[in-house]
Amino acid sequence: MVNIPEMMISSSSGPRPIPVIGMGTATLTAGSDEVRVAVIEAIKAGYRHFDTAALYQTEKPVGEAIREALRLGLLKSRSEVFVTTKLWCNSTERHLVLPAIKESLQNLGLEYVDLYLIHWPLKLNQEQFKVPVPKECIATIDIKAVWEAMEECQNLGLTKSIGLSNFSSRKIQEILSFAKIPPAVNQVEMNPLWQQKQLNQYCKEHDILLTAYSPIGGIGNAWGDNRVIECDILKDIAKSKGKTIAQISLRWLYQQGVSFVVKSFNTTRMKQNLDIFDWSLSDEELSKISHIPQRKNIYLIGMMTSEHNDIMAKIDAEL
């Protein structure tokens, strides 16, 4: 089993560790039992951070897997795992945040989560989530009111830390102007083809850990593509080092000083994704990667079409 390095984030009890690599559970195809089994296999392989969200509908199987791992002796205590979940956009109002985290905790079967994130910086006025989202259902949020409710979640002990997902530096700056508890994490799309250099630097300057999702481009998901896997520069580096392209991408992230969540329910790839800590990319290889043409890929998990660009500009959600 691989010992995964850790980074430190702020919490209600002071700085606490978060595993550098976590297992993502966003899936449109896997059933609940498949997710549960995959999480157990990931625990066996050494994963200790599990990332879910109200939107993913994987909170229940993640919680079931943790309880089963405890019964099997794979884990000695709840404190050995780091669990992240997220506030969905239909609950980004002051009075809806507390009920939302309580529902997530009920789904997980946990007394607390380690990290609770605002999933996106907007409000969706939909009874049932459908894509593409009609323009009239998208609205701005009162971020001060929502963040105050997030702080309440931490103060009540329902989460150890609070943070953001898909927030720009401008949005973060707004939160920092009034926050009593600053965000510990900002989770965003990041990989060699969307390197987030300015946002990463901004977060480092404000002691906010950047966490990368879609580290290999979201391949295999409806919202992802093959751009990272088909990148010639990454192919050449992988071939020369005898590594997979996924391993090159993950090692590159590690050397950028960020944490990351990667989703694979295949046990072989789970283990391969952990095999990135006893070797490194050279300065020459890092330089080649830094010159890869950039283009972001994730647009609100496939919810947005080109006609939504004016709305995205309105809500200042440049990612």
SSE topology:
Layout: E1 6-9, E2 16-19, E3 21-24, H1 32-45, E4 49-51, H2 59-72, E5 82-87, H3 94-108, E6 113-118, E7 123-124, E8 138-139, H4 143-155, E9 159-165, H5 169-176, E10 185-189, H6 197-205, E11 209-213, H7 232-241, H8 245-255, E12 259-262, H9 267-274, H10 283-290, H11 309-314
Parallel strand pairs: 3-4, 3-12, 4-5, 5-6, 6-9, 9-10, 10-11, 11-12
Antiparallel strand pairs: 1-2, 7-8
Helix pairs in contact: 1-2, 1-9, 2-3, 3-4, 7-8
Tell me briefly what this model is.
The chain is of the alpha/beta class.
Question: What can you see in these coordinates?
Answer:
The protein is α/β, with parallel strands linked by helices and 319 residues long. The protein has one domain (17-314): TIM Barrel. The chain has helices spanning 32-45, 59-72, 94-108, 143-155, 169-176, 197-205, 232-241, 245-255, 267-274, 283-290, 309-314, and strands at 6-9, 16-19, 21-24, 49-51, 82-87, 113-118, 123-124, 138-139, 159-165, 185-189, 209-213, 259-262. It has an eight-stranded parallel barrel, surrounded by four helices. A two-stranded antiparallel sheet has the order 1-2. A two-stranded antiparallel sheet has the order 7-8. Helix 2 packs parallel to helix 3. The longest helix has 15 residues, at 94-108. The two termini are 35 Å apart.
